[in-house]
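Reposting from the mailing list since nobody answered there.

I have sequence plus structure tokens for a pair of proteins and want to know whether others read the tokens the same way I do. The first protein:
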Amino acid sequence: MNPSGNTILITGGGSGIGRGLAESFHALGNQVVIAGRRRQALDETTAANPGMRSLALDIEDRPALRAFAEKAIAEFPALNVLVNNAGIMRPEKLLAQQPDLADAEAIVATNLLGPIRLTAALLPHLQKQSRAAIINVSSGLAFLPLALTPTYCATKAAIHSYTLSLRCQLRSTGIEVLELIPPYVATHLMDGADNPRAMPLAKFIAEVIEILKTQPTPPEICVENVKTLRFAAERGNFDAIFARLNAS
């Protein structure tokens, strides 16, 4: 993926990893469009980055997604990169969960169905571009789960699998399909912002952008901090790391 000269739509772009990516891509000369539920976060981000644009999006709202895609295409006809970043993470006590599974269903709708639906809605447009890319944000926890957040980890594992199939099916098109695999990053997702064990957001974003500047871009974008989780099974220490991660 060429890291400049694009029109990039980033979901969940008003905070955390999404905002970090948005600001870095913006600085590289891309037209960046951020989308999300919280208008205040979107406005604060665009105000701090003149030229950046925003669109309101509730990724869980299935009927609104198609209209959102049409609006995005109409306002930004050069749109050629989609970053499926929006996500939520909530702890779940499976022995005492809600009868209606509200948290689990919201996580699935946001983290899995949202990216699948938005990708489907934008795919015909992306196929018309001379070059295009889809970046799906999964997690190191897709490969080695944190038991406290079972549905979150399951959705990220599903995004990994979906990305593999999407890449295979689009191999004859001009659309590059990438997977960004973050480690535990210092954002407001769960308690990361205040946890010294989390990777600093600025360091994570800087390492990601450096990888994207390398040609050709690897299908999986893995910073060094995530490789312990990502390759635990391949390295034969999955059980030991799983036990350590879930000891508490």
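The second protein, same order (residues first, tokens after):
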Amino acid sequence: MFLVIISCSLGYKQLQSYIVQPDAVLVLGGHEEREKFAAELGKRHPHLDIWVSGGSPQNYVQRIFATRGIKSERLHLDYRASDTVTNFTTLVDELKAQGINSVYLVTSKNHMTRARIIGEIVFGSRGIVLKPLAVPSSLPPEPIEKSLRDGARSIFWLATGHTFVNDQF
């Protein structure tokens, strides 16, 4: 019975990601390819703001988006994150407060599984739906252990507000 409930829940989440139109773009930054991909996406969706968590140096990121015609008012750079879990935990409440209920999630293909697990837990806790868009990558998928570890850290964050990174207990 438990597996049926989990399967239905996952199916519902997948259906939501197809139906719900994103209100913004979230880029897990730090890789030029991801930022360029998001800038091109931003050109195709001129009504969406773009949030870059982490990311390349500020001037460089701004130049990537500016050369593709993305106005600075649409670009939100956030450098509080120190890893993939904090990419989500540092922004989730700010995005929700801005009325964002769905985001395009942009990251590399080899990183997407871990990012989705974390995002479904952290953003899902606030009712924010993810629509993943993977940037092609020649790197192999990350080890499942990283996904399990960071999924556990995300659940711990839900319970305590701490992520085990730069937290003071």
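Reply #1 (J.P.):
I read it the same way you do. Strands lie at 24-28, 49-53, 75-78, 102-108, 129-135.
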